[in-house]
Amino acid sequence: MSSSAQSFRLADASPLEDDLSYVWRKAMRGHQLDVASIARACDVDVAAIEALIAGQAHSDLLEKAAAVLHLCSSALRALPHYRPRVPNVHAVIGLRLPFETDTVNAWLIREEDEALLFDTGFERESARQALQPLGAADLHLFLTHDHRDHVGGIAGLSSITKKRHAMLCGHTQRIGALEIRCVDLSGHCIPSYGYVITGLSHTICVVGDALFAGSIGGCADAFTYQMALSNLRQHVMSLPDDTILLPGHGPATTVGQEKRSNPFLV
């Protein structure tokens, strides 16, 4: 197994996927505004906005820029110290898999005799090798979206995959004691699928790259940005606050914590 591939529990500490600079730039792209445009809107020079993006801005400027970009200023100020706390659910195991110089998550859910895997990582063999010591086989495979860091391991898992599921948004199916409902999380990628899973001690929602703890997946333009926010509010933020969210990168989080701490969604 690659030295950077590892399994982890939900409560294990993990840094956020996005720092402040990523949040600012994702919002700017989503509103189709550049640094000069934000500077004009805030009546400051470009250097002040560049300092803001680097995390060095005065609180008053942060308030102004947040208003321009429709971000929550209090969540932005708290983001460098935000670390979501999530209870362990025995049935859920995270796989942190290598992706070039970074990592990507896949999620294994085991309940009774059933094993469900959500996404496969980037490398052909890393997910299979990470699953081997866990004894996971006869997988029900689900994909959140088709970006290369989430589908690269499909071929390597063929020998231990029982069925690859292609669900339609709004449809529900049962596997053992688990009920899986597919929801539309398009925006970062079209299509993108989320999976709301009930039958465990907590409701689970696998969100792929649609949402990260304290952030969202980057969107190509204003249209897909608004689509992403609309889908997240409709299909994820409407779930109970204790619903555990499993992102494609970074730590797990919960609906309630994202309602309080995600600058895009507060």
Protein model, in words:
This protein has helices at residues 20-30, 35-42, 46-53, 59-69, 73-78, 126-131, 148-151, 222-235, 255-261, and strands at residues 6-8, 92-99, 102-111, 114-118, 139-142, 161-164, 172-175, 178-184, 193-198, 204-208, 211-212, 215-216, 244-247, 253-254. The chain is an alpha+beta fold and 266 residues long. The chain folds into two domains: 20-81, 434 Repressor (Amino-terminal Domain); 82-261, Metallo-beta-lactamase, Chain A. A hairpin with a 5-residue loop joins strand 13 (244-247) and strand 14 (253-254).
Identify the notable features of this structure and list them briefly.
2 domains, 434 Repressor (Amino-terminal Domain), six-stranded mixed sheet, 9 helices, Metallo-beta-lactamase, Chain A, 266 residues, alpha+beta, 25% strand, 14 strands
Question: Topology of this structure?
Answer:
Blueprint: E1 6-8, H1 20-30, H2 35-42, H3 46-53, H4 59-69, H5 73-78, E2 92-99, E3 102-111, E4 114-118, H6 126-131, E5 139-142, H7 148-151, E6 161-164, E7 172-175, E8 178-184, E9 193-198, E10 204-208, E11 211-212, E12 215-216, H8 222-235, E13 244-247, E14 253-254, H9 255-261
Parallel strand pairs: 4-5, 5-6, 10-13
Antiparallel strand pairs: 1-2, 2-3, 3-4, 7-8, 8-9, 9-10, 11-12, 13-14
Shape: elongated
The fourth-level CATH homologous superfamily of the largest domain is Ribonuclease Z/Hydroxyacylglutathione hydrolase-like
**What kind of sheet is the major sheet?**
6 strands, mixed
Based on helices, strands and strand pairing, what is the structural class? alpha+beta
The helix count comes to 9
Q: Which series of helices and strands comes N to C?
A: EHHHHHEEEHEHEEEEEEEHEEH
The share of residues in helices is: 25-40%
In terms of DSSP E residues, the strand content is 15-25%
Report the top-level CATH class of the largest domain: Alpha Beta
Based on CA atoms alone, the radius of gyration comes out at 19 Å
